[in-house]
Amino acid sequence: MSGCKPHHRFSPTTNYFGTLSPNARSDSEDVGSLSSVANDCNSIPIPDRDHGSEEIVQGKVMDPFEVRIRFTQHLQHLNASVTSANKAAQYALKFREMDEDLHNCILEQLEKNSMNNRANIMYFIEQLCDMAAREGHQDYVRMMQRDILRVVDAVAPEDGSGAANVKVVRKVLQGLQQKTFLLAQTVTEIEECLKERDTLPDAIGLSSPVQGDVEMANSAHQTPKPAKANGYQKLDKKQIEQRIEEDRERHKRLRENIWAIPGGEDSEFDKLWEETSELGEDDFILYEEEAEERREAAKEFREEQGLRTATNGE
């Protein structure tokens, strides 16, 4: 033991923290020194463990995996309300450094979830592209342009199981084209592919494929199983009611926005000018008919007033 040396050497007048013991300093001074040392220990930074880039949200460190999980939850809880779509889009833009991972989350959820949720995500895509363009982050728009065919195939598959979503796809594609996110040629080509996807009866569960009289005879004594359309389970009553309610909510919001006019001094005039047709021969004929009706109405009014005056004079 005589050859071993201690790792730390303490003097008789110092304690573990390296401060003077109470024998050398007063109690108040000792308490002050200990508190200062404790503050110094708390201020020591925690070393990075190389877990990847991390984000701090409300004082809490979020790693990429947690960001993906939360964004997936936003996508799974989308509905017809604008609030849910805005919330998910704001979250995606908040963590724009992970835009590639979050874009992959969108594609994964489109291929996994129910047809109703796929329709909600399709509407969300338009909202995300719109908000990303306003904030100057074009990466989301470019990735969606790159994978638009994969998105369409997931929302309205070729087997006809997503025939109820074909109108949703068309509406969103038209919106993306009007906002110049997609080229007209691209939308036209996708429209050609969609023509054959909304006419299959199996998509809405109205019929099931017949595989021959022999198989039907053999299955007559078997326990019936829930029918499927092209490998997809048919929608149950709850899903159908949910889809009807969401479509009703979207139509109501669309009617509210019909009369919306963009800001600007001449916006209303420009809107009316574009909607008004050119002056033609039919317009002059219509004007003459309306003028004749006004003259007849004025004549009847004068005759009625004359009768009233004559009656009062008598």
Describe, in plain words, how this protein is organized in 3D.
Helix 4 (99-112) runs antiparallel to helix 5 (115-134) and helix 8 (166-178) runs antiparallel to helix 9. Residues 1-53 and 201-233 have low confidence and may be disordered. The strands form 2 sheets. This protein has a two-stranded antiparallel sheet. With 314 residues, the protein is mainly alpha-helical. A hairpin with a 2-residue loop joins strand 1 (55-57) and strand 2 (60-62). Helix content is 59%, strand content 3%.
User: How many strands in all?
Assistant: 4
State the helical fraction: 55-70%
- End-to-end CA span: 143 Å
Strand adjacency order, main sheet: 1-2
Number of helices: 13
Strand content: under 5%
The biggest beta sheet reads:
2 strands, antiparallel
Mean pLDDT across residues: 74
Q: H/E series, N to C? A: HEEHHHHHHHHHEEHHH
Kindly provide the radius of gyration, computed on alpha-carbon positions and rounded to a whole number of angstroms: 36 Å
Large-scale geometry: elongated
Poorly predicted runs are: 1-53, 201-233
Oligomeric assembly = single chain
Name the structural class.
Answer: mainly alpha
SSE layout and pairings?
Elements: H1 27-42, E1 55-57, E2 60-62, H2 64-76, H3 82-94, H4 99-112, H5 115-134, H6 139-146, H7 148-155, H8 166-178, H9 184-194, H10 213-218, E3 228-229, E4 232-233, H11 237-256, H12 267-275, H13 281-313
Antiparallel strand pairs: 1-2, 3-4
Helix pairs in contact: 2-4, 3-5, 4-5, 5-6, 5-8, 8-9
Offer a concise description of the structure:
The chain is mainly alpha-helical.
